[in-house]
Amino acid sequence: MRSRxxxxxxxxxxxxxxxxxxxxxxxxxPGVTDGAFLKTVHQGNLAEIEAGHDAQxxxxxxxxxxxxxxxxxxxxxxxGDVTALAGKLKVSLPSAPTxxxxxxxxEIRTKAGTGAYDGAWLSAQAENHRKTLGLIDQQIASGxxxxxxxxxxxxxxxxxxxxxxxxxxxxxxxxxTRTVPAGDGGMAAGAEASGGMTGAVAGGAAVAxxxxxxxxxxxxxxxxxxxxxxxx
Length: 232
Prior knowledge:
Elements: H1 2-28, H2 32-58, H3 62-88, H4 99-109, H5 115-142, H6 146-166, H7 185-231
Helix pairs in contact: 2-3, 2-4, 2-5, 3-6, 4-5, 5-6
């Protein structure tokens, strides 16, 4: 009887220990869903990098070409973070985009060099980034691994910005190929404005100085003339 009681107590203790250590384990090791998220976004990044290069080569408008360059830049950075995290968590990543992603780009390439290319590319990117944003939101809401969820939160603003650039299958980006790194735009613009203001102030000060000096000389001359008249 005592042996049965001891066995029951041991089973209970094991269950409690498992329930206690479960969440901590989930924080450090990626579950099936978390690992699948890393793999999916990695393939998405690879597809977007390739699509961005293709837009730079085959797009007809400067806006589409510039948007492609932005996608290459940002998704290369995002994928570097994904790859590093996957290596840390021992998650094996695919080496190429999915067959569906490859097929999508191949179909768009058939319109290369025409206005139809730009429209097809923008529509595809709008749909792709909409899906990616939904995937990120799902990971943020229900992901078990804290590190992967943190990476999803960090990537969300970038993906949302990309979606805004191509929303509705229309290019909303700048037509210029010149890009300003994130975080520097306001400072650069502020510096330019400050430089212009400084120049204006300096110029104004120089003019004011000249006027004051001229007025001083004129005042002195008038006093001397008046003094000479009094002596006469």
